[in-house]
Design a protein that fits this description.
Length: 95
């Protein structure tokens, strides 16, 4: 299970996204340029630096809130930042 390369690239209407428990890969530029994307929920604990494509989150709103699984939170923060997510984004753990 995956989010394809450029799946939502420059989508102007996308405001929230939930990445389910079975997602193993996110393609490059999957959410590139989604300026209105303000809520990202990541439920999977299967993501790695190799399984998330380059610039996957570049151009996402700086006011976005990202909800992460508690056990992967620290690693995912670093991972998402390296894949283009702004440093001003707020993070929150989900149970």
């Amino acid at each position: 299970t995956a989010v394809a390369d450029k799946a939502f690239k420059n989508n102007k209407k996308l405001t929230k996204v939930t990445i389910g428990k079975n997602v193993k890969t996110i393609g490059s530029k999957a959410f590139y340029g989604c300026k209105k994307l303000t809520k990202i929920t990541i439920q999977t604990s299967k993501l790695t630096t190799k399984s998330v494509g380059s610039k996957a989150f570049t151009g996402v709103s700086k006011k976005a809130k990202v909800y992460l699984p508690k056990k992967n939170a620290k690693a995912y923060k670093k991972l998402l930042k390296s894949k283009g997510l702004s440093t001003k984004v707020k993070y929150q753990n989900i149970k």
